[in-house]
Amino acid sequence: MPSIPSPISDPVAILRDLITAPSVTPDAGEAIARLARILEAAGFDCETVTFSAPGTPDVVNLYARIGQGAPHLTFGGHVDVVPPGDAAGWRHDPFSAAIEDGRLYGRGAVDMKGGIAAFVAAALDHLATRRPGAGTLSFLITGDEEGPSINGTVKLLRWAHDRGERFDAAIVGEPTNPQAVGDAIKVGRRGSLSGTVTVTGRQGHVAYPHLAENPIPGLIRLMGALLAEPLDAGNERFQPSNLEFVSVDVGNPAWNVIPGKARARFNIRFNDRWSRPTLDAWLRARLAAAAGDGLAWTLALETPSSDSFLTVDPRLVDGLGAAIETVTGHRPELSTGGGTSDARFIKDYCPVVEFGLVGQTMHQVDEHVPVADLVTLTAIYRVFLDGFFDGADRTA
Description:
19 strands; single chain; six-stranded mixed sheet
């Protein structure tokens, strides 16, 4: 079994530097600037790029690169964080990066400044011993993952591609582990599709229902049709697809008015048995059969949606699994569960997996990471980097 390299760079110091730069989405500029300074000092070429779109906030992003040629490994991450809520409810100020009883507290400690700090520390140590011409290492860092994800990674990838960058593999440092660092690698994700079903009736007075047409019973019927049976039973790669209604609304504050329209919003998380076109067809067939001829309804699907994906690249998946086993002593589960991440954009450019910290406190009050977990994750990343860039030819 390969030996575990001793750490040189300090992921704790890097993480504290990032947490003390408050970066509630989409205001991540100072955190991006601090990260760029760390990477520039290590020899990375760094470019900050701001993207805009009508009706959305401007977002600052970072692309940092070092080395030449293949293989090109990129690390994807985000420094924007969700709001901390009432700071008085926290054990420590959410942006103080306080350490107590071996735990580092702060918004973003787990999701996902901790993953970034661990990978940066591992990269700095790896670069100190790597042989010349071993390949290219880069960072794709956004300030728009916790927000609408419009002016972040999806545009940064396109920007890099237009400049001639070609990636061979990617790791996204999201908190993927359920109980302990090394439990799981996310090798894929289910897709996500959102939509709205609207039933149109005729507004009127509740005392004169014969002069109105209440859309609510019809909407209930349509919702029942979509929930009548499961989409599928899953397979050996993915858990079952599921449709969940997230809101039902008629926009009616009055007690004595039958509403004219009723809407239900839903989200589907779907496995590789489905795509947007096949789900569209399934939804419309179910709704039409339940509606019959007397119900006026429409279906509107949101754009963009995301497809399911599965990464089978052995250099990436097996290499990371071997690094985890080297450091922790056990092989990780290969998982496709959970929600979406920016990996859904990266998959269109190269094979991608997700691996980071334990996610139990992400988005919670008193979000924190055990310092020991941060050290373990840094060691895993370092072993993986050395192996990916052919550590056998590197002098120790």
